[in-house]
From TrEMBL:
Gene3D superfamilies: Vaccinia Virus protein VP39. One of its GO terms (molecular function) is S-adenosylmethionine-dependent methyltransferase activity. This is Methyltransferase domain-containing protein. GO terms for biological process: methylation. Residues 224-249 are annotated as: Disordered. Keywords: Methyltransferase, Transferase. Residues 50-148 form the Methyltransferase type domain. It comes from Tistlia consotensis USBA 355. InterPro entries: Methyltransf_11, Methyltransf_Superfamily, SAM-dependent_MTases_sf.
Length: 249
């Protein structure tokens, strides 16, 4: 295995000391893509937002700072990344605004129709069964909910030695559109556009919207909406703020 292949494997599934280093590099390399993708997501106050592949938690932190009254769920398959995400979002986790847990993307530990928006930044390269992942995304999205996928364009990625076919599936605009269709998103409800990221680096953002519900929710469906997660551990209770007079006394 070459050094660049080892780097690609760590980016796909960070672990150990190499994974911790990969997380630090992700924070640097993904700073602008994270900011652009979070802005394009357009989350609104009070919404529940899920990030697939939250990595070291940079986008989660951006959402926590800007999404008032909402809940951010961060899922990753790497415990090394979740440890960094918890450290980066310690206060928001303590207050219950952010919930982080380890999960397989092909079997999300979330109730159906429980999420308003889903964000996936620089992670689609690694989906071995993209149809299954996107099928789960559609399941957990509420009717009218939005998925936003960010990837670096294939033409830019091919210049980077770590983007080996063994670890990375590359996308141009057509391939990204096909990806969304493989998950059941209708072409008329999807859009893909270019986004300049850095000189010589082009990003792609794909936005897909889940169609409205065909039938009214039954009682079990309404109950599912009240339960945003089945298996993600509940956050620790937030500290209770005492009145100023009591604190000073």
């Amino acid at each position: 295995m070459t050094l660049w292949q080892a780097v690609g494997r760590q980016l796909r599934h960070p672990s150990g000391a190499g994974g911790r280093l990969a997380g630090r590099l992700m924070r640097l390399a993904n700073a602008r893509p994270n900011a652009l993708a979070v802005a394009a997501l357009g989350a609104r106050p009070g919404e529940t937002v899920l990030e697939l592949g939250c990595g070291p938690g940079q986008a989660v932190a951006l959402l926590a700072r800007n999404l008032h009254g909402g809940t951010i769920l961060g899922l990753d398959q790497s415990e090394a990344m979740l440890a960094q995400a918890r450290a980066a979002n310690r206060a928001a986790v303590a207050w219950g605004r952010v919930r982080l847990c380890r999960a397989r993307f092909e079997a999300l530990p979330l109730a159906s129709a429980s999420v308003d928006r889903v964000l996936a930044i620089n992670v689609a390269y690694f989906w071995q069964d993209a149809g299954a992942v996107l099928g789960e995304v559609r399941r957990v999205l509420r009717p009218g909910g939005t998925l936003l996928v960010y990837v670096t364009d294939a033409a830019s990625m091919r210049r980077w030695k770590f983007a080996d076919p063994e670890t990375h599936r590359l996308y141009d605009r057509a391939a990204l559109s096909t990806l969304l269709e493989s998950g059941g998103f209708r072409p008329e409800m999807t859009a893909v556009f270019d986004l300049p990221v850095l000189p010589g680096v082009t990003g792609l953002i794909a936005r897909a919207r889940k169609g409205p519900a065909v039938a009214a929710l039954d009682a079990s469906g309404l109950e599912a909406r009240r339960r945003p997660a089945r298996d993600c551990p509940a956050p620790e209770p937030a500290p209770i703020l005492r009145p100023v007079a009591e604190r000073d006394g």
